[in-house]
Amino acid sequence: MSVKDSDTRSCCFCDPIIERRTLLVCGLALTLPSLDTLPARADAPDPRAVRPQPGDLLVFTSGDRREQIIRPDDLTIGAPPTLAFPMDPASRSVRDGSRINMIVLIRVDSNEIAEADRGRAADGIVAFSAICTHYGCPVTGLDQTAKNLACKCHGSIFDPRNNAEVVGGPAPRRLAALPLKLEKDELKVAGGFSGAVGQQR
Ligand code: FES
Fold first, then answer.
1. Among 23, 47, 128, 138, which residue carries the largest CB count within 10 Å?
2. Which of 99, 154, 174, when mutated, tests ligand 1's pocket best, judged by the most ligand atoms within 8 Å of its CB?
3. What are the structural domains, with CATH classification, of the chain?
């Protein structure tokens, strides 16, 4: 039951929808829960759908290692990209409640990353929203050069060395970047998405 449900009652003397405080004034013998035992508000944000936060760890989205932490050694240059969800390091809650939180990670040669974008990379690993800016498919592949990110739905190609600039296909704009940092051999989110995520029509 939501707070709204548990915290309001109908009363013949009062407005049909009244607050708990008003009930006490009316003297009705209703047993109301203590405020500190009330469940979380129904309109409180779902922590699993909260966007990536600075300090979040990154975990695999699927497979044998689903929800396990991704470490730098899990990513090698030339390998296909890895899909990830952020995870709150304190609660260990994976923020997989919204597909908008899906992240694509890829490791490239640090020297090939555009100078302006190197601050967002962690030892050659770069992260972007995995949601294609064309029609919102997840960006899961590599192109024929094995250097660029490719969306398999309609063939959009993004250059991870140049802030996911569109270099092929119908996508209207680059993928939103997600800054990373390395702390004690752990890959962490260093900030929010650089712009709008996914399809914007
Ligand atoms: S949804 Fe990615 S290219 Fe169309």
1. 128
2. 154
3. 3-37 (no CATH), 47-189 (2.102.10.10)
